[in-house]
Write a structure and sequence with these properties.
4-stranded antiparallel sheet, minor pseudopilin epsh fold, alpha+beta, 164 residues, 5-stranded antiparallel sheet
């Protein structure tokens, strides 16, 4: 064999990585590749933001449902009425327990970023549970994000909570 010849020696038929016709990428090829990559990345970012917004609404509805269920359980456990109050347009809601004739704020809860309360059909914007676990004030709560995606949390008279 002759040293310095063959397809791996930089000479030969020019098909090797260091062939005579191979000089790398031109500036135009590099710019086209970068442009394609930028389009792909930007579409992925937009899709991620859309999915994140949908997940935030779903997470907010599940969070509210869990807090309503917890308020119901606490009302039964301590034999004291509990309620959760909501204000339209708000990004938070308040858990309350009854002491004497008044409700006392137990803990304010914040909704995930970008999600707000749209409407609460319960009387005075409060869903209340009696010491027996039934709902003395019940209805539908709607949460939504800036894109208009909505989820409903429904509490019936028996105190059952479900998300739609």
């Amino acid at each position: 064999m002759i040293v310095g010849s063959g397809p791996y020696a930089g000479g030969g038929d020019g098909c090797g990585a260091a062939g005579a016709g191979s000089r790398g990428l031109t500036v135009l090829e590099l710019l086209v590749a970068l442009g394609v990559a930028a389009v792909l990345v930007s579409s992925a970012v937009l899709e991620y933001q859309a999915v994140r917004a949908k997940l935030a609404v779903a997470m907010a509805a599940q969070q509210v449902a869990a807090d309503l269920r917890a308020a119901r359980v606490r009302a039964v456990a301590v034999s004291v009425p509990h309620r959760v109050t909501f204000a339209a347009g708000a990004v938070r809601y308040v858990l309350q327990r009854r002491i004497g004739a008044q409700y006392v704020e137990a803990a304010p809860r914040r909704l995930p970023d970008g999600v707000r309360v749209v409407d609460c059909s319960a009387r005075d914007g409060a869903i209340s549970f009696t010491a027996r676990g039934t709902a003395s004030s019940f209805g539908t709560l709607i949460v939504a994000n800036e894109r208009g995606e909505r989820r409903s949390v429904i509490v019936d008279i028996a105190g059952r909570v479900r998300v739609q």
